[in-house]
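re: ur question from earlier - yeah i can do the single chain one, its not a big deal. heres the input i used so u can compare w yours
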Amino acid sequence: MDYPAGRQDLITHARKNDAPETVIAALERFEEKDYRSAADVSTEFGKVR
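and the output i got, formated as tokens:
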């Protein structure tokens, strides 16, 4: 995954890599902003789960 990445970039990347639907659903609840690292994404997962 290349950063920075927006919510839709994360969803597209997850779908291309056959992520489980539960992961896609969580990504769809992410705030619409630029995520600058995997740590940013991890923090956001903690908020939406």
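The chain has a mean pLDDT of 96. not sure if urs matches, ping me
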